[in-house]
Amino acid sequence: MSDKKVLIVSSNGLFREGLKHVLAGTADLDQAQNVCTLQEAEELVSLGQADIVIFASGDKMEGAEISASSISPLLSRPGVRVIVASLNEAGLTVYRRELVDGTSVDDLVAALSNGC
Questions:
Q1: Domain assignment of residue 96, yes or no
Q2: CB-based contact 94:63 (threshold 8 Å)
């Protein structure tokens, strides 16, 4: 099985770099790329440079909060998985087209490895 290319999209550098560091040793994942705008993400996906796109929930890019409508071009791309992750007081919450609450970093890695 070939390694999946991961793209981390967030205006928050700490989120991007932290998640990149956490995923660095994960089997079956290429080194994650980081971008800070939705436009950059769409460009990389259109070039085939991402199989999995991870957004930070509640992130604001280009003046608007990330929403299903703003990321719909990515959601409709065949073969591309979109995951929205949120760090909060309760820990990590992962959305994979449905809410998976009370999750951990291991659950995020499982979401990256499994189909949505």
A1: yes
A2: no
How many domains does the chain contain in total? 1
Contact residues for 12 (Cβ-Cβ < 8 A; gap 6+)? 56, 59
Q: Report if residue 65 sits inside a domain.
A: yes
What angle in degrees, to the nearest 10, is found between the helix axes of 105-113 and 13-23?
Answer: 70
Is the whole-model pTM more than 0.85?
no
Lowest mean pLDDT among 2-6, 7-11, 52-56, 94-98: 94-98
User: Containing domain of residue 50, as a range?
Assistant: 6-113
pLDDT of 99 > 70? The answer is no
Are the C-beta atoms of 35 and 62 separated by less than 8 Å? no
Distance CA 9, CA 61 (A): 9
- CATH of residue 109's domain is 3.40.50.2300
∠ Cα 34 27 14 (to 5°): 30
